[in-house]
Design goal:
Layout lengths: L9 H15 L5 H16 L6 H16 L3 E5 L1 H17 L3 E4 L6 H13 L5 E2 L5 E2 L9 E2 L9 E5 L3 H9 L3 E5 L6 H5 L2 E3 L3 H16 L2 H10 L2 H33 L1
Parallel strand pairs: 1-2, 1-6, 2-3, 6-7, 7-8
Antiparallel strand pairs: 4-5
Helix pairs in contact: 1-2, 1-4, 3-8, 3-9, 3-10, 4-5, 4-8
Length: about 260
């Protein structure tokens, strides 16, 4: 269905259309569409823009990627549907390997996602024929590659399942998440939780990667000084400020109306 550019929710509706089309193509699972709706609700609360605490986390994510020995970007159906081009560009600039990892996994679907990523420009993509397992997981998300996620020291896991984020953390990997819900198990388990919308977060991380590669001392400083607890506390404070402003905006017209009467 064509979405008029004048629609106040144009960007949101176009994103939903992309996900629906991706489901029809076998890229995104129906369950992924439900997960997207949950995230979108949090984005409304965050003002649909990147907060200052999110920028701090994105710079930290870039610093950890730049200083990693074996960085890997994990990709699921929603990420491939919405941000394959951003993944490809970020993987190239780090550089990092890309690995397809799915909860609702079939080999045909994995191959489809690999094609999407390669078409977007990613050149080093793992996924088919996994040869390792993440300990402690019973779902198909345990399947991975020794030369990819299994041996990675830093894993970027956008739109992740909480159980796998926890399992990767137990493997002593530094986990970077991109999740709009700061209360999710993923955000709580990640070493660097980026609470921002996917297509804002990945380009921001990419820009920070380019800056930090040119300034290794700054990358080292960011890695040393990043504080997850302090960053999440700042994010919660931002949400409280947003809610307080929304209350004031809501009450304003009502008060004016009573004054006139």
């Amino acid at each position: 269905m064509p979405v008029p550019r004048t629609h106040p929710r144009y960007a949101s509706l176009k994103t939903r259309e992309r996900l629906v089309q991706a489901h029809r193509q076998g890229i995104a699972a129906l369950e992924g569409l439900i997960a997207h709706g949950r995230g979108e609700a949090w984005d409304y609360l965050l003002g649909e823009e990147t907060s200052a605490p999110a920028l701090v986390a994105e710079k930290a994510a870039a610093a950890f990627l730049v200083t990693a020995e074996r960085p890997v970007i994990s990709v699921n159906g929603n990420v491939a549907a919405l941000a394959a081009d951003h993944v490809a560009r970020l993987a190239a600039v780090v550089p990092a390997r890309v690995e397809v990892n799915l909860f609702h996994r079939t080999e045909a679907r994995v191959r489809q996602l690999v094609r999407v990523l390669r078409k977007a420009g990613a050149t080093d993509v793992l996924g088919p024929r996994p040869n390792a397992r993440i300990p402690g997981l019973e779902s198909k998300r345990a399947l991975c590659h020794k030369e990819g996620i299994y041996r990675a020291d830093v894993v970027l896991v956008p739109l992740e399942d909480g159980d796998r984020a926890e399992a990767l953390a137990r493997m002593a990997k530094l986990v970077i998440s991109v999740d709009l819900n700061p209360l999710s198990r993923t955000s709580q388990a990640a070493s660097v939780p980026v609470v921002d919308e996917l297509t804002r977060a990945l380009p921001n991380i990419g820009r920070f990667v380019r800056d930090l590669k040119a300034d290794p001392d700054e990358a080292t400083r960011v890695v040393r000084e990043y504080d997850k607890a302090r960053n999440l506390a700042a994010l919660y404070a931002f949400i409280r400020w947003r809610l307080a402003n929304l209350v004031r905006v809501t009450k304003g017209p009502e008060r004016r109306g009573r004054a006139k009467s």
